[in-house]
Amino acid sequence: MSAVTASTTTTRTGLREGELRHRLYPIVMHAIMLTAVLLVTFPLIYAIILSTQSGALGSLRPGPALLDNVQRAWDSAKMGLLMRNTLIVALAVAIGKIILSLLGAFALIYFRVRFGGLIMALVMLTHLLPLPVRIVPTYELLTEFGWVDTFWGLTIPFFASATGLLLFQQFFRTVPTDLADAARVDGAGPFRFLVSILIPVSRTNIGALFLIEFVYMWNQYLWPLLVANSDSTRQVQIGIKQLVASDAVIEWGVVMAGSMMVIIPPLVVLLTLQRSLMTGLTGATEDL
Description:
The protein is mostly helical. It folds into 2 domains: 2-50; 67-287, Orthogonal Bundle (MetI-like fold). It is 77% helix and 0% strand. The protein contains 13 helices and no strands. The longest helix is centred in the N-terminal third of the chain and has 49 residues, at 2-50.
């Protein structure tokens, strides 16, 4: 009897410990996730708080100067003009990359391109060459073309995209060949097949690539710093630098107010296309 009682007691103790672990596990995991979120978002939260303050900074309490700081940042850095310029560049590059990536992937998948594998390998090698490595020869080339301080120079060097080409190539491999055969039987040419069938079924990948490239170009700093030399082409990141690099005492409330304005457009694009980003990248990863 004593052995049976001991066994029953041990079983109950094990069940209680298992139940306790089962209850504590989600609590611990949520606490870890909440801590990680706070650590990641605290700089942004603090920047928002600073944008509402004037004069002495350092308090974690919001102040009443948000509208005044926004107005001063808008006027002193010409934020309206700079945001227009950056929007033009980001949209042009995102759309240009989508068009070239679609056409390139379509040619590699649906046509017998000689040395197609080698071409794709050479394109992927460009991932090993970041912008600072290519910046000197690219700038010299733009100087010969007369594209310095123009929107041509700010956009065209970024039109080619190894990421977009790979994304659409992997997706086109999953499209049934019966669709191409049916389109050919119906008399549709390659361009009609691309426009009427492939592009509509690629909308999630198009949305994912548009989001990635729009945010990437919106946050560009080094290239616009070299190429854009006038207010007619200057970008918002340079405007924030001008707010910080003033000769007088830096007014961090105004700087942070300008930074908050710059965050809004890519945030709107992210919230609009986040589902396309997750679906497009997940599908591309599964196909690799």
